[in-house]
Amino acid sequence: MIADLIRKLARGEDEVVLWGDGSPTREFLYVDDCVDGIVLAAEKYDGPEPVNLGAGKEISMRELADLVADVVGFRGKIVWDTEMPNGQPRRSIDATRAHELFGFEARTPLREGLERTLAWYREHAGAVAGAQA
Question: Which residue from 30, 77, 82, 91 has the highest number of Cβ atoms inside 10 Å of its Cβ?
Fold first, then answer.
């Protein structure tokens, strides 16, 4: 989802149309934090119950679009097509057990994760485009 949004906004078009009204919220966990959580779980958790890994912070799609636009330097207009569906109103998980059972806590702020993702995308965009052809 974020990769698609980065691609759309990084193209530098005058206008980008996004679905819905931007009110649904989502939670994002940076991949390095996810890996750290999996390693911690493998080393310290041996229980039968599933444990969620998450950042514990939600952001609306509208706020996310504005943040991604700022990170990529998008200066065009974001248009919300309210004739299209919003999707699920909220997606967030409770990662309390991960913290309690093996000390997991996400460390990468969303903006920093987006900046790292954008840097990776810009470095690899040609290879990714070639692989999709």
Answer: 30
pTM value surpassing 0.70: yes
Q: Which two tokens stand for residue 53?
A: 């890994």
Per-residue model confidence as pLDDT tens digits over 34-84: 999 999 999 999 999 999 999 999 999 999 999 999 999 999 999 999 999
Burial of 5 (0-12, 13-18, 19+ CB in 10 A): buried
Question: Nearest CA to 6 among 91, 57, 72?
Answer: 72
In a domain? residue 124: no
∠ CA 110-32-63, rounded to 5°: 15
Domain count, the chain: 1
